[in-house]
Amino acid sequence: MHRPLSKGPLALPYQRPSPHCRTFSSPLVEEVIETVTSRMVDKDLARIFENAFPNTLDTTVRWHVDGTEKHSQRKHHQDGAWEGMQSFIVTGDINAEWLRDSTNQLAQYQHLAKKDKRLESLILGAINTQVEYVIESPYCNAFQPPPPSGVGSTSNGQDDSVHPAYEPSRVFECKYELDSLAHFLALGNQFHASTGSKAFLNTRWYMALNTVLEVLMEQAKPTFNPTSGRFEKNEYQFRRVTDRGTETLSLAGNGNPLGPGTGLIRSAFRPSDDATILGFFIPANAMMAVELNRTAKILKSAGKDALAEKLLERADSIEKGIWEHGVVDHKRYGKVFAYEVDGYGSSILMDDANLPSLLALPVLGFVDLNNEVYKNTRKMILEREGNPYYLSGRAFSGIGGPHVGLQHAWPMSRLVQAMTSDNGDEIRQCLNDVRDTSKLGLTHESVNVNRVTDYTRSWVNPNKLIPTGLLMRVSPLRLLRTTRMAANLSSKLIFAPAGDKQTQQADQYTKGSLERHQLSPSPFTQFHTWFTHAQKEGRVHQPETVCISTASLPSGSVSSRYVYLKELDATGFVIYSNWGTSRKASDIQSNPRASLAFWWHEVERQVRVEGRTERLSNEESQAYYGLRARGSRVGAWASEQSKVLAEEEGGREILDKRVKGVEERFEGVEHIPVPEFWGGLRVVPEMVEFWQGRESRLHDRFRYTRDQNAEEGWKIERLSP
């Protein structure tokens, strides 16, 4: 046991190598570790984080050059190969680099790269190294050390026959896994999302991208020619001398037949390195569709519109194929995503722990957590009755897979379960269960569900597996909140949802810009223009929805609520409400000022209004009140807005009785008078701001303020974002 031990009940060992033995160092990473662990209540979880978060840097960076050194063997390579920054990231206890693993191993450092030039260089080098691997052998999944590194290669000890042929001194293993290519794209996408840099978009990267597109085109082909019906040998075949059926492809290395016209892409192997049964592997297709879309956005920003369109077309084809062929009806769970399909109507219903998986579809960014098909699928794969590889025993439960047999589940699956949950109790339980299996201070590949001391691989690079998914793939702030939840300091937790789940970066605003010459001299005219645009063809759902904020004096206490804008005239913005008992009524009585905020997500615009308030006359209020539905008119009389409906006195029944009384009072009366305490409120603006979202949070903002010397009485100024 390596000391010092953690101060929690598990007394977990310290598993970091001494500083002079670490393969890469980052002062910023050390700072993050110190900051996060010092604030974590669960000291055993803190030790797991301390051991695992820096593990990639501590142990797996076998070669890195920052681009200033001259590679001694460059003369042996074609023009441009192995130039610039390079990084060779091994998977852990195997001296080889997997495309998938190295992307995942670096993911948790992406957020730090903008503030740490060494990390930025390391990740950019990893992109460049993956570029060379993809160009040379795009069908392969694991690679030997780069030739310029001088690091010796290793044999995998297998007897494989593969087409296309590869050079064993360059390739460790050549199992074609679609997600490997998706992870290549993901590495660059994450780098750009975190740093804003397009430095990796060089000639070699574009060559690798075109190589990926060629593979996608080749692997979208069916087994039999759609016109002639003749068998067409696949570009990729794999045969291995083995007694394990999951280690090789059937039918002379071609795999089972796949149907035409699906839009899906074949994957010969799963991310577990097990052979697919039906070659259209849905999780990898979903990941590829997402990453193609993300890459296309980067290409458009780089002026590569034609290439971006090619990616978008392929992504759209894959996505449509998933929804058409990858969703099946289950007699118990309803519509669910299949794990694999063949385009002929056959499907495999299961899930494997390795990512990409069906469980991780929201993490990948393919669907929202609340998507009904996903919710049905999640329920299915987290039950023994629905997923043959959901294993449950005396000591542990989780998803396993054929790679490790029928008694071992992967701790990684419990962390993906936590990442796809909004239930505090479920998240806590998942974290605690993984913590309790990590007796060595680092997580295992898999553990026996009846005896956690029986595990596979005493050590494997934790970031390769995302073994502490919540802990490793999120920002330190989110980690801190999560571990506090695990310590029962909070029963609820909201992770501020990023648009991009893969990188935890918020979506970029790209739908428009705003320039001074586009603005009307009057904010009323400008608002009318924007509001009409938002309304047109349903671009924005209920654009009249507005947040009104008021503040009471002398306390200054602010309150906000959403209402509907009902009128706009040459004086101001009009809403209607209760002005007798509501909180906003009492606020305005002491402080007749208010602000309005409109948010139109679909067009990436917002409008803010600040000004004084004035009540509309009874006649003006009656004109609108008379247009309301009868039930709403009755409700205005019945509700003493914001007053307590005491449960011990009947709660909701009190309100129902009042409604009934008002209905009896006005029975047979069509013209119900507006209550004296109810009516319109006009916000007369003194300031109006128009905001248009822009990329990198560099938004366009223009503020109108009253100025009698300006055109139409308003001065217009651009504000810094």
From TrEMBL:
It comes from the Eukaryota. The keyword Oxidoreductase applies. Keywords: Flavoprotein, FMN, Oxidoreductase. GO terms for molecular function: FMN binding; pyridoxamine phosphate oxidase activity. SUPFAM superfamilies: FMN-binding split barrel, Six-hairpin glycosidases. Gene3D superfamilies: 1.50.10.10, Electron Transport, Fmn-binding Protein, Chain A (2.30.110.10). The keyword Oxidoreductase applies. Residues 539-646 form the Pyridoxamine 5'-phosphate oxidase N-terminal domain. InterPro entries: 6-hairpin_glycosidase_sf, 6hp_glycosidase-like_sf, GH125, Pyridox_Oxase, Pyridox_Oxase_CS, Pyridox_Oxase_N, Pyridoxamine_oxidase_dimer_C, Split_barrel_FMN-bd. This is pyridoxal 5'-phosphate synthase.
